[in-house]
Amino acid sequence: MTPWILGLTGGIGSGKSAVVEHFGRLGVHWVDADHAARWVVEPGRPALATIAARFGDQVLASDGSLDRAALRRLVFADPVQRQWLEQLLHPLIRQEVADKLAQAQSPYAIMVSPLLIESGQYRQATRVLVVDVPEALQLERASRRDGVTEEQIRSIIAAQARREERLRHADDVLVNDRDMSWLAAEVESLHRFYLTLRGGKA
């Protein structure tokens, strides 16, 4: 039977990675759209040449790979450039994710994406799980993890779907504001529930 697809999303610093890695330990196949976003711009892939042709060598690292931080600085400040980049990359990322999900052997498979709602990827999922976290905790976790300023984190939050918008699309919500053992128990509970579903529906 073809696995049904669970879309997993949450704002920056919400703990999506910790959640999906625990699902993975339970034997669930998962694909991260962020990883796919890196694969589609690897040296030798057409997208990298297209990006370099538009922005010049300033977006390339010395080894010829994409300097993601340089590109981020250029596009976050300019909605037109960000839109151009998204129109180039989103279809490629969607295809990459679909190819990887097609390899799943588990009863359901997870598509993780910070832009699940904004990019329309949620339409490829049968259910949506939102990892939610209070904004103060989100800022603290993300700035500690990425070593960037609160202002930069706020600009990323502003570019992502508003929390209310994410929650509106959610079938399931996991509030990740406690410790890792509590989180693991919550994931295991959701997993047991998901195994009872037929095609992602109760």
Task: Explain what the structure shows.
The mean pLDDT is 92. This protein is globular. The relative contact order is 0.22. The chain folds into two domains: 1-28 and 106-202, P-loop containing nucleotide triphosphate hydrolases (Rossmann fold, 3-Layer(aba) Sandwich), CATH 3.40.50.300; 39-95, no CATH class. With 202 residues, it is α/β, with parallel strands linked by helices. The longest helix has 23 residues, at 79-101. Helix 1 (16-25) crosses helix 9 (180-196) and helix 2 (33-39) crosses helix 5 (79-101). 52% of the residues lie in helices and 12% in strands. The chain has a five-stranded parallel beta sheet, sandwiched between helices.
Which keywords apply here?
202 residues, alpha/beta, Rossmann fold, 2 domains, globular, coenzyme a biosynthesis, EC 2.7.1.24, cytoplasm
Order of helices and strands: EHEHHHHEEHHHEH
Radius of gyration: 17 Å
Query: In the CATH hierarchy, what is the architecture of the largest domain at level 2?
Result: 3-Layer(aba) Sandwich
Please report the first level of CATH classification, the CATH class of the largest domain: Alpha Beta
Helix content: 40-55%
Envelope shape: globular
Q: Widest sheet: strand order?
A: 2-3-1-4-5
Largest sheet: 5 strands, parallel
Low-confidence segments = none
CATH topology of the largest domain: Rossmann fold
EC number: 2.7.1.24
Keywords: ATP-binding, Coenzyme A biosynthesis, Cytoplasm, Kinase, Nucleotide-binding, Transferase
Pfam families: CoaE
Family: Belongs to the CoaE family.
